[in-house]
Amino acid sequence: MKAIRVHQFGGPEVLKFEELSIPQPGPGQALVKIEASGVNFIDVYHRTGLYSSPLPRLMGVEGAGVVEAVGADVAEVQVGDRVAYAFTGAPGAYAGHTLVPAVRLVTLPSAVDSRTAAAAMLQGMTAHYLVHSAYPLKKGDACVIHAAAGGVGLLLCQMAKQLGARVFATVSTEDKARLAQEAGADAGICYTEQDFETEVKRLTDGQGVQVVYDSVAKDTFEKSLNCLAPRGYLVLYGQSSGPVPPFDLNHLSAKGSLFLTRPTLTHYTRTREELLERAHDVLKQISASTLKIRISATFPLAEAAEAHRQLEGRKTTGKVLLIP
Ligand code: NDP
């Protein structure tokens, strides 16, 4: 099979397209023939070594396809099942086949094709836990969503609007602002041209918002805190512009008894029950067309480096896929 591996951390050029043998499933594992792999910003951290791991490293943590074989003690899926998954503990989705712990696989409803599923699992469940669990949005809340035309961003806008929140979306271009507004945002703020803190205060009559969903981090963190109403929540769930430098917790009291959390999807899909609940909720909404998945770019597996260049270069909107 073909697969993408990295032998050293670095830029997109370290993504090597290689011939590897198809692995055999061990106990508790399923062998999945991948039909589409999701490209996620976390793959960039794995490639650069920001999230370090032993080398060589298989790439990709999200995919959809068909179960081709199962190891001993697998009860969750059967050969022939259409499945999808997102799991950082089993890298290897950028490949023709991959091994996944069966407990992390979700069987797909017939209305959801493999490409849509590969686009929905990681970013969909992330948006889901952010608005339902990390800070559960209530009707009438106001929120800021950074990078709102991105993969997680467009899904967050839709879910936040469905829950009755006022949504202020930050993006880097007018086209991205239009996409975020089509996804439900009440206002788009071009944070590369406008001061988003000033805009959010203007749009909320100086009151601030109950929550900021911040995946940009270094460039936005300080002003995100300043956008919050007293006792507001900063949900810092990514770091697309780089990590936040060391932070003095006293700022949280000075700025209004604020809450700060740094969540990850793994901890919000800890049990199989929670994983299935979230995944089924997302897939049900897609089947009912109440959640729209935007796939903006699809690359052959061999062009994984170009997919990374575009994602890091802020050229993409919604989801990017690799097709083995
Ligand atoms: P996106 O599609 O959102 O792409 C990243 C976006 O970030 C860009 O399109 C860009 O939007 C914005 N951005 C702002 N500054 C920069 C910069 N300096 N370099 C590159 N991009 C920048 O990616 P994903 O949807 O895959 O992920 C979004 C974020 O969410 C990532 O930080 C990721 O790590 C995080 N994440 C966290 C999870 C968790 O559970 N904690 C799970 C899933 C994702 P614009 O041009 O509009 O500024």
How would you describe the overall organization of this protein?
The chain is an alpha/beta fold and 324 residues long. It has 2 domains: 2-121 and 269-323, Medium-chain alcohol dehydrogenases, catalytic domain (Quinone Oxidoreductase, Chain A, domain 1, Alpha-Beta Complex); 138-262, Rossmann fold. It has helices spanning 41-48, 114-134, 151-162, 174-182, 196-203, 221-226, 250-254, 272-287, 304-312; strands at residues 2-6, 16-19, 29-39, 57-58, 62-70, 82-86, 97-101, 106-107, 142-145, 166-171, 187-190, 209-214, 228-236, 259-261, 295-300, 319-323. Helix 3 (151-162) links the parallel strand 9 and strand 10 (166-171). Bound molecules: NADPH dihydro-nicotinamide-adenine-dinucleotide phosphate. NADPH dihydro-nicotinamide-adenine-dinucleotide phosphate binds next to helix 1, helix 2, helix 3 and helix 9. Residues 40-42, 122-123, 126, 147, 149-153, 171-172, 176, 215-216, 219, 237-241, 263-265, 311-312, 314, 316 line the site of NADPH dihydro-nicotinamide-adenine-dinucleotide phosphate (NDP).
